[in-house]
Amino acid sequence: MNQTQTLPTGGTVPRGSPSLQELFEAQRLAEQLPVLDAALHRAEQRLRAERSSEGQELYFMAWILRGTIHQQSSGLDDQAVEEKNAYTLSNSRFWEEYYANVDADRFDWYSTWDTPINWLSLGVSTLGSVIGPFLFANASILMLGCGRSDMSQQMYREGFRNITNVDISSGLLERLRRGFEREMPLMSWRWMNASSMDTEDQSFDVVLEKGTLDSLQDNSELFQAAVRESHRVLRSDGLFISVTDTEKLQQLQSIAPFSCEAFAGHLDSQRRLLLYVCRRRSGLLEHLRSWFKSEL
User: Where is the Methyltransferase type domain (predicted)?
Assistant: First the structure.
């Protein structure tokens, strides 16, 4: 089998290498980057003065869009992007800035507990009615990247009260604690990095995330670390539950020993929703490690 492709000059390169057309396209995009960066920066400056909630959201979206373009086009890490006065979704400083400036009203990525979903295999039912049967009342639940969603509050009122909310914005967590700790005394709020969690192995029965992994999708190292950390903190046969709009089944099962069940549906005619319920698989070595820990 011929493993090379012929160039117009008569030379050859290994088959599968970028074509000249692809290289020219990459060069063209690279040349346009400064123009696009400048246009987005001007948009940021105009939006900075907006006081409406929509204007605030657009301002931060422009910030993120510019940072993501820099990261994907130039292979920059979060710190290098920040040096260009831009941010990515995986940068903790972005979220501190974001939550300090946007309205405090709840905001949900994709859906929340009582959102009706048109499931392909189940018909129309709420997100909670699909997740709920996998849980038990006193399950210890880690809400990974809680944000401004009211998912935890709705679950608490449904009887799932042992919930630890974690996020990388300390300002947001303090605001949530002040707002809900009196009504929901069994719920807690902790600062924690999803890719390096400050908690013991096998501490939770359930890790639930909604959009958090999506915010790390462009940073492969952090994404994989967050999945492995979720597996680490789950008890034997614990559940990792992911709500997203992106195919992740193969990724999740290749990064950590999970056995996943997938549910697909639509929020409306334009937006789809995917729910992954992944059970932590524990091998013999892990069972022996747990036994030795208990005997020490």
Answer: 142-241
For residue 165, give the DSSP letter: E
| pTM for the structure as a whole | 0.78
Q: Torsion angle, CA of 148/151/154/155, rounded to 10 degrees?
A: -140
Could you count the other beta carbons within 10 Å of the beta carbon of residue 177? 16
Cα distance between residue 206 and residue 238, in whole Å: 6
Q: Do strands 272-280 and 258-266 pair parallel, antiparallel, or not at all (unpaired)?
A: antiparallel
Residue 270 is predicted with a pLDDT of 82
159-177 pLDDT, tens digit per residue, is: 999 999 999 999 999 999 9
The Cα–Cα gap between 163 and 176 comes to 13
Alpha helices in 181-273 (DSSP H): 212-215, 220-233, 249-255
CA distances from 202 to 1, 30, 206, 287, 290 (A): 51, 46, 10, 12, 9
